[in-house]
Design goal:
six-stranded parallel β-sheet, binds ligand GMT, alpha/beta
């Protein structure tokens, strides 16, 4: 067995997206014997740590009256330096380029020749919305390009990174698709609606449905208003209900749209929940009407749970939601999305076939073990390359 590595992983502790990928990766690598140091402003929402090989290092951002905004970027850089000096790191992987790539670069300068190899893992809006904003672009692009390795979860985001951050073709950007814990996100043994029905009325009529599901951080890019438009249209033909997990800036908008469309009794907003698979796996369909997604981890978790996904054909979603495991329609056609949902959920045979195909697709293409192999190999290559370059 090759030598275990000492790996630092920096991420936002958010539920969904990069925070989930980072903490699952940390757990998986630690289980393989590597020493993993997770650096974040709070414990990730998913269970952590899983083993003695994992350590959590909290980034604290002390306020001071003179500082209008607490300098998070500096606090992350300082924590990286502290962890590297105390524990020795072979490699540091930062998830979400803004501002983590800049923090890492700064730490690298402080650490000098002993600095670990640096991998920046781009995720989505750190390129397409925030990183390319003129307020951040010059430094973000510079820091990303200065990394020893750059990863993205899809070809789509690689193209976006080249275009929006101007990352030259001379620099490799490697596609490492996201993955899912298929044991955790597994279909229900008994496919019934009972756990979802009880959210609407204790002992409610579980035979009614269909039940639709959504998980997100309720940012504008998620177009949560479209969820209500789709639900209203589906309900013209079937007594559909929608369960929503997560929270964020557009949750109120979704609630008021639901009220305006007379849907209040047909929706349940559950807020942030680390554990939602017990509900998700009983749903008939997962709605993800995002403006764009570089990948769509939430969609993959649904597929793995045997839940077909309905989304717009945008970004990297077509890499995940292939024909037969869900339906993609043209952006932002709520009529078409509602029709796609109805086509599937109104036909028990079609729904079951799609649910089985969704699960099989997730297991065959997005399992954790091959993904961890890819990351391990990639990290070792980056470390070796950096050592060679340093010897020159
Ligand atoms: O970039 C974001 O919007 C946030 C990010 C996150 O950190 O939650 O989500 C992105 O990264 C995920 C993990 O790689 C992807 O599954 C999401 O599709 C992606 N979001 C977008 O591109 C909007």
């Amino acid at each position: 067995m090759s030598q275990p590595l000492s790996i630092g992983i920096v991420c936002f502790p958010t539920l969904g997206g990069s925070g989930v990928v980072a903490s699952e990766l940390a757990a998986g690598l630690a289980q393989r014997g590597h020493r993993v140091h997770l650096i974040a402003s709070a414990h990730p929402m998913r269970e952590f740590p899983h083993s003695d090989n994992e350590r959590f290092h909290e980034v604290q951002v002390p306020p001071y009256p003179l500082l209008e905004q607490a300098p998070y970027t500096l606090a992350v850089a300082t924590k990286i330096v502290d962890v590297a000096q105390a524990h020795g790191l072979d490699l540091l992987q930062v998830h979400y380029a803004v501002p983590h790539a800049a923090s890492a670069l700064l730490a690298r300068h402080v650490l000098g020749p002993k600095a670990p190899a640096l991998v920046t893992s781009l995720h989505g809006t750190d390129v397409t919305k925030v990183g390319c904003n003129p307020a951040y672009r010059a430094v973000t692009a510079f820091a990303v390009a200065a990394s020893d390795g750059i990863t993205v979860p899809s070809d789509y985001l690689r193209r976006e990174a080249r275009e929006r951050l101007g990352i030259s073709e001379a620099l490799a950007i490697d596609v490492l698709p996201n993955f899912v814990d298929t044991d955790h996100f597994a279909p229900a043994h008994t496919r019934d609606h009972a756990p979802l029905a009880s959210l609407f009325a204790p002992g409610g009529n579980a035979a009614e449905g269909p039940y639709l599901f959504h998980v997100s951080n309720f940012r504008e890019v998620k177009r949560v208003g479209d969820l209500m438009e789709v639900l209203a249209r589906v309900r013209r033909e079937m007594p559909a209900r929608l369960v929503l997990v997560g929270d964020g800036p557009t949750r109120e908008l979704a609630e008021s749209r639901a009220a305006a469309l007379g849907l209040t009794d047909a929706v349940r907003f559950l807020g942030k929940r680390a554990e939602f698979v017990e509900l998700l796996r009983h749903a008939d369909g997962f709605l993800l009407p995002s403006e764009t997604e570089s990948f769509g981890v939430a969609a993959l978790e649904a597929l793995s749970s045997g839940v077909p996904v309905f989304a717009y054909r945008v970004g990297g979603i077509p890499d995940v939601v292939v024909p037969g495991v869900g339906c993609l329609v043209e952006p932002f056609d709520v009529e078409a999305l509602a029709r796609a949902v109805l086509d599937v959920v109104s036909n028990a045979g079609r729904q079951t076939a799609m649910s089985r195909a969704a699960r099989a697709h997730a297991v065959a293409h997005f399992g954790e073990r091959p993904a961890l192999d890819r990351y391990e190999n990639y990290f070792r290559q980056v470390i070796a390359r950096r050592l060679t370059e340093m010897k020159r």
